[in-house]
Amino acid sequence: MSRSAVWHPFTQHATEPVPPLIVRTEGAYVETRDGKRILDAISSWWVITHGHRLHDLRVAVA
Predict the structure, then answer these.
(1) What does pTM read for this prediction?
(2) Which domain holds residue 35?
(3) How open is the CA angle 51-52-58, to the nearest 5 degrees?
(4) What is the pLDDT of residues 27-50, one digit of tens each?
(5) Per the structure, how many domains does the chain have?
């Protein structure tokens, strides 16, 4: 992921560390490439209202 191409909401890029690379999502969680599961609490602004990869929503959109 390029920090120059993605602007995360409410993030000061001059002082923040490089964000973790997310390789998988499930429900309210994201997972890093080393297997660490992180609650995606900030994504309530975008997708987490329904959860990541919600089966019924994926079927409805397909």
Answers:
(1) 0.56
(2) 26-61
(3) 100
(4) 888 899 999 998 887 766 666 667
(5) 1
